[in-house]
Amino acid sequence: MPRIIAIRVGIAGQYKAGLWTPVRVLLEGGAEPWAGQVSVVAPDGDGVPCRFSTPVEKPCVVGPGETATVEFCARLGRAEPVLTVQLHQPRDDSPESQRVFKVGDVEPPSVLRRALRSTEGLIVVAGAEPAWAERTLTGLRQLAGGRTQVARVAEIAELPERWEGYEGVDAVVLATGDVAAYRGTRSDSPQIAALEQWVRLGGSLLVCAGRNAGATIAEGAPLARFAPGRFTRTVPLRQSSAIEAYCASAVPIPREGPGQHLELRVPQFAGLEGTIEAREGNLPLVVRRALGFGGIVFAAFDLDQLPLFDPDFHAGRERRDRGWQDLGSLIGKLLDAEESSVEAAKPAGAVLHYGFDDMSGQLRSALEQFSDLPVVPFWIVVALVVVYLVLIGPGDYFFLRKVVGRMTATWITFPLVVAVFSAGAFLLAHRLKGDQVRVNQVDLVDMDLPSGEVRGTSWATVFSPRAQRSDVAFEPQGFVESRQPGPATTGSAAPPHAARDVKTCWLGLPGEGFGGMDPKTLSATLWKDGYACSPRLDALWGVPMPTWSTRSFTARWHVKTEVRPEARIAEKDRIPVGVITNTLGVPLAECLLCYARWAYRLGDLGPGESVAVGPTSERRDLTTLLTGRRLLFEAGVQRATPYDRGSSDVTYILRAMMFFKAAGGHRYTGLANRYQGFVDLSDLLKNDRAILMAIGPNSDGPSCRPGARLLYQGQPAAGAEDRHMTIYRFVIPVAKEGESR
Prior knowledge:
Elements: E1 3-9, E2 20-28, E3 34-43, E4 49-53, E5 60-62, E6 67-75, E7 82-88, E8 97-102, E9 121-126, H1 130-136, E10 148-153, E11 171-175, H2 190-200, E12 204-208, H3 213-216, E13 230-236, H4 241-246, E14 265-270, E15 275-280, E16 283-291, E17 294-299, H5 327-334, H6 359-367, H7 378-404, H8 410-433, E18 438-448, E19 453-464, E20 468-476, E21 500-506, E22 531-533, E23 539-545, E24 549-560, E25 566-572, E26 575-581, E27 588-595, E28 598-605, E29 610-613, E30 619-621, H9 622-627, E31 630-632, E32 637-639, H10 650-658, H11 660-663, H12 666-669, E33 689-695, E34 708-712, E35 715-716, E36 723-735
Parallel strand pairs: 4-22, 9-10, 9-11, 11-12, 12-17, 18-36, 25-36
Antiparallel strand pairs: 1-2, 2-6, 3-4, 3-5, 3-7, 7-8, 13-14, 15-16, 16-17, 18-19, 19-24, 20-23, 20-34, 21-24, 22-23, 25-26, 26-29, 27-28, 27-33, 28-30, 31-32, 33-36, 34-35
């Protein structure tokens, strides 16, 4: 039997609660060969144990005396989780061996730290000087008041092999100053493929390549797919004014040597793609380009080498720092870590505490409200309790003394009152709550028109009228071909499904509030046995549902499709001009085209209908539209209408999440947008992209095409009275004047 040596959670030990994170388990073989599944049991957002396992079709094999590292992804629902690693046979939940790991009670080679707070940023760095990340990135301030934490890996092999392992990461920085980090890494390595897929699904990547560009971004090199063009050669950079102007710095980059020359080498490219944000003559220095729903920023110089950074300088030594003193401003500009200039109008009075500090918490709270399942006001509950106490106390006494005349009759009246009130309470609750499973769901479907890539995100809250265990899964609809396999059933092996990738799990609540994933005090759970996530991560098996309670779930999925709207848009005089045709077969309501800093109202667009976009289209400033900004004449300044953190309007909440940075971010909403921050596509508006936003039909019928369907016990859960909304966003490339697409 293998011995469980260690567990390593996160990327370089850093991770966030409630999001997919890589888990590595180290095993040492025993006297006999062993083959089976490796699982980790972790608490979910409510503290209920949830088991994550390796795939059934790919058993872990450990020979006698051998060591093996097993990697898979899990979602941890507590900031200080207690994890149980189990070894068992496929379709057999009984562990043959297990070991418990706790935060603060592990020894090397195990790595299990406390999860990062929801307001903290996480940047993964590879290929950079060890001191560079700590000295330049850790101090970056986040809009939500948190700090940036850095996860530095010494080798690319330490990065996740699956894209979902990056879900808690805000940005990845690939430097090339340390070429040793890329040894043994090929352009088709699983780590590189996973990183590219994460970027396509909304990730942010910064690549810095200068003197070692030929070994890292040339054709066939590990990072070739992330280069903005075909690498040709490196040349010396003689002037630094473009870099200084890019980050609005008044501090010149230092020169070294007798001739005071600038010691920088930059790569040249052929067939360059993207937006050039900084250039020195004909040398592009900063290039930003879109890749699917994410973006890549390419810096054509080394950020971790002289003259920008002095790797040999250490604080406290007499030797001076030879690096550029304004490097932090440049990095903040490249990573878009600058605070927005939007100023929110301060609400009068004390700020109300809603129990959440993240936009996802407000969305979850809105989905927990069912229109025909009223919440009984607290004062009514108190009044009924008072009436009950009066009847069984003084009421019973005076009734027996004044009417019946026999105090011994209390043996009849007292249990009768208790029984009547208990029956009444049960009938009232049954009438108010009903006996049907109810579902509130919203789908956000994003489509990248150039590639046909469709990215879907679903959030759903299920109300259960009775205590039971249920299987939960999401089945993508609409753009998904019927030939693709459905979610895995309990204990089933996974069929091949290259065309679709679905990740389903519970939806947590960030923060320290009641029900949050970082509670100050842990509450006991009624369910000790827990449940399981399928090895493909596309379904939950045996989820415990208490009586008259709700649970929230989420899914992320992506597919390729040939069904997409027709759109040809070009920029003329900084205005998008073109025609958009709805070829989807479903009506699109309240269409809004966002481009640069403007939003164009296009109205409703029925199947087969077209709309022209141009100078005559109704337009508004995007930030003004999102924030309702108005001029306060008495103050002489322009402020935004305060964001309503108490709103339960799903469209209102999602609009702020979908363009969070464009709306002003934390300064406008007063909330963070970390937990589900990947839905924010504000950065694409900087990459020659327009975004068409529309609302799909919400009712059932032939014209309804929801993003995904929630399966509850293997059957569609939504009923006629349930709320199911689908919002579409279409990413459209915009050709510049003189270009064609």
